[in-house]
Design brief:
OB fold (Dihydrolipoamide Acetyltransferase, E2P), 3 domains, mainly beta, 1 helix, single chain, 23 strands, 5-stranded mixed barrel
Amino acid sequence: MAISKRLYSILIVGMVLMSVAYIASADGEPCPITADVGSNWLATGTITQVNGPNFTMLGKDNKEYDVKGENSQFVANDADGSKYPPKVGDVVRVFGKVGEGCRIVASRVRLFTSEPAATASGPQKQIRIIIEKQPTEPAKTVELPPKIEQCPPDWQGSGLVMDIDYTGRKLKVRTSNGAFTVNIANATLTNGGQSIRLVSVNSGDAVRVSGNIVGVKEIDAQNVSIMRSRDDMLGALPQTPISILGTILSVDQVSMTFTMRTETAVLSVLADKDTILQNQMKCATFAELKPGVRVKMSGYGNLANGFVAHHIQIISIAR
């Protein structure tokens, strides 16, 4: 029986609409993604199914998302994530864009895992994680503020406090890799293991920060601890680059700070895990810096607050 062109066109359109509906709805459920295709996407969740570099993730909103990770960068514990292939049960943070067909196209996946997983030869068995609702409790006369859920920190560093925004609760911290804006609205501040308030933090303090990257050179801190205080602090001065020779006068191994005498002044210097230390063109350690050692230091800072070393070259050993 011949089919008219009009009927044939209607059938084709119907098949296309059914195909689109199927893509937009997996397993008969509406697509959980509400953002437009091409939009930026960031979420943290638990992997429930793995198929090679692709996986399904249960978000904190109790919805499952299909993630395409074929061309994404996998990172675990600040190391190459290829040694830690994703596995069911891993907690991950996914950076990417909304793709066609109700799928997230990941550009970067951070794995919060501690041990390498065995390489899988095929799809892993799917598990279903269900978040059950808590039974309703009688109303209380005093309501406590909701607890702020924090993700595991993915950034750690140390540096000098160069500026403080007491109203916005933010710090400007200079490290060997540049200056960072540190949001401390939800952070715990400590000095010597004791909790302190923001008013106790001064420009020139050497601090250790752990938190999460939320923007370019911007950290949402969870913990900020003072390693060394600057009591006689002067007004914040512009940060300037410096490259100078001098002799070490004193060293504090715990805070990785030292003082050095130059031809013009005595400088306070902070080093961190990213500072390059060399001795006779070979790698050196901070433990090799001792009083009497002559060094060439390159870094940033000012006389009022001290300097952060980017490179330290040992010129001669103390005798």
